[in-house]
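Build the 3D complex.
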Amino acid sequence: MYTLSVYFGCMLRGVSVPLTLLGLLERQPTHGYDLKRDYDTYFGRGKPLPFGQVYATLSRLARDGKVSGGDAEPGAGPDRKRYAITELGTREFDAWLGHPIEPEPHLQTLLFTKVVLALMLGRPADAYLDAQRAAHVQRMRELTEIKRTGGLMEALLADHGLFHLEADLRWIDVTSARLSALAEMVRAS
Amino acid sequence: MNSPNMPAPRWRGCLIEARDVRKSFGQTPALAGASLTVTAGEIVAVMGPSGSGKSTLLHCLAGIYQPDTGEVWFNGERLDTSSDNRRTELRRTAFGFVFQFGQLVPELTVVDNIALPLLLNRVGRKSAYARAGAWLPRLGLDELGGRRTGELSGGQAQRVAVARALVAQPKILFADEPTGSLDTLTGELVMELLVGLAREEATTVVLVTHDARVAAYADREVMVRDGKVINRADIHVEVSR
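Done.
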């Protein structure tokens, strides 16, 4: 049985944890515990992020100069260090958020993450979706050219890609139409 | 009212242009400052969700609707302030049209329908029918020239519609959801034909569609949203890998 949690788990497989944590830190400096809670709320869907992965990721980000960790604060839990995104981290997150992803089927995972983070941070989610739509249509144009100039085998393979990209595009269109409602929900939570 | 301060477009390669076009139907705005430039020989897809204003934009470009404000230029000529007669003449001589359905005369044969624009342009009957007949092999409809178009399948009828739109060698072809009523494979055949023939005839195409598979046949696409055009050039498309 393909339950909803399994479905979301598959959908969100491949989301970049470091970049998502950077995005969550863009809102305000916070603790690892809160980052995990927010990650699980928005992106975890049936597959919570292990604490170990949160802290290991934060350590790597700190090592690379993308976040800074303050002194440990007293309190419950394994680590009460407050983390903040650095200028380098912000630049990396901005670059990731603003660039369309290489168009290939089943992109909802990353697109969903980008859209939610963009809305959370008051960034132009509609512009990101437009950019992704343009990248998708460009890839569809390339596949259409392969169909027009290739043999039947190439045409059938191109068709497979075209239908999947088309499904992604429909999701992009529906998400565009629902951005206002999604923004309200994300900002209210 | 049109803005008197807008400079005339420079016509280096630009065939048709909408400039800040606004159009409402009653209290309902359809276009809210739409601008679009199409270069001669380009095939441009105009995409957008239902109600976004993409068909209204096409009708304004083709001189079927007159904008409330803004300007439409065609080949160096101001179209939105032209007389009805002039716009009708342009639609007959310089513009071709393919719509989703309904543009053929069902009681007339395939050849009659293709010859019709030529006859309306006062081309002699013999020459008009010779030119119309020459299109049949290009359409893959060699055997069906004498068939009434009301007896054709949807895909065959659209192929005839494409030929009828191009037979008078228009400078620009306006196509509004030309495959909207066809299944996927038949739609692809029609698009192959439309794009292939338009390129052979060096005809500019403005193609309105909500279907990305259809838009993928164009050289570039623009999005219409809330009555405004979002050009792909304005969108950052460098992809991260």
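The beta strands of chain B are 14-25, 28-39, 43-47, 69-74, 77-78, 95-98, 172-176, 204-208, 220-225, 228-231.
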